[in-house]
């Protein structure tokens, strides 16, 4: 029997929105670094962003600035605060992956959609408005007081929705930010959108789809 959740909950940036931190970094540093060094810079930038969200909550502008400063130091590049601000201010301009609007709209006709995002209140709705489907709740890290992959945001979301981990399906392109935590919290129904960010990891018991166009089929829609 196909599981029909009370809500489908989503990571936003990366899963639904084309979260172009790599492109933003290239636009600033691409002329300074050759291809191999730029690739390393982007890898470091992603790793430091994850590290920055593991502690106490701070504004996402600080997450970007701190992780960029650490990346510049590791790669022998001069850090400038205006570069970090430029990257941060790009975030609300980014739109969805091409497969997202139609795929979401099909699911939204049958199941309520929710976002749990490592985002700021002032930025997130600009991204959500580009997704082309209705969301009944949009919950940010600023609201919950912690960033994913910490558990508090998921617990807060379940409280707000008035349901348990057995009642939802959580959908993300990231194990490290979302699906590992969802697994640890007992969320049995998980969907991994394989956007090539991370390798498959079957230990975490998920359904794999290549894009959001495949999501409706998970629920037999």
What are the SSEs and their pairings?
Layout: E1 7-10, H1 21-29, H2 35-52, H3 60-75, H4 81-90, H5 100-108, E2 113-117, H6 121-128, E3 137-140, H7 141-144, H8 152-161, E4 168-172, H9 175-184, E5 189-193, E6 207-209, H10 215-218
Parallel strand pairs: 1-2, 1-4, 2-3, 4-5, 5-6
GO molecular function: hydrolase activity, acting on acid halide bonds, in C-halide compounds
Keywords: Hydrolase
Pfam family, one: Hydrolase
Structural features, described:
The protein has 221 residues and is of the alpha/beta class. The chain folds into 2 domains: 7-18 and 95-218, Rossmann fold; 21-93. It is 44% helix and 12% strand. The chain is built from 10 helices and 6 strands. Strands 3-2-1-4-5-6 form a 6-stranded parallel β-sheet, with helices on both faces. Strand 4, helix 9 (175-184) and strand 5 (189-193) form a beta-alpha-beta unit. The protein is globular and about 55 Å long.
